[in-house]
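Late entry, flavin mononucleotide complex.
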Amino acid sequence: MAEEAKEMNIAVRYFTRSGNTQKLAKAIGDAVGVEAKAVSVPLEEHTEVLFLGSSVYAAGVDDAVKRFIAENKEKIGKIYNFSTAALAASTYKQVEKLAKEHGVAMAAEEFHCRGSFAFMHRGRPNEQDLRDAAEFAKGIIKKG
Ligand SMILES: Cc1cc2nc3c(=O)[nH]c(=O)nc-3n(C[C@H](O)[C@H](O)[C@H](O)COP(=O)(O)O)c2cc1C
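Prediction complete; structure with ligand written out below:
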């Protein structure tokens, strides 16, 4: 029983329009041994480590990400942000703001890489990006 209680609950959720962030989500899910799911799938139980993936679309992160945080806040231990964008640095600041509004903890660590958009950054995230995302996730789990 005590052993079970110590086990860390991990989940991966993401929003994607063109599949870039989904690629990172799958690499992260594979690295930590859980299935990456879309933000339309609510968390089932309390989750210490939530890898949350999003992207930048002109006005900001998609409303689906905002809804996910609002609707699942009671179950989120800490958000570990990951994102893709064509130009923007990352979605960290926007997600951090949402987390704060809902009283959810946000880890300082994040993963971000370029995401293809029209003629820009073709092929990103690439194999190296996916390996880096996997290493990022493994590093978080090891620390926990
Ligand atoms: C409608 C739209 C607006 C976008 N606006 C921005 C932007 O303002 N800044 C930026 O860096 N990238 C922008 N992008 C690029 C996306 O952030 C990038 O392609 C990202 O990897 C998409 O992730 P996804 O495939 O997971 O949806 C935009 C993409 C779309 C489709």
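The longest helix spans residues 127-143. Will revisit in the morning.
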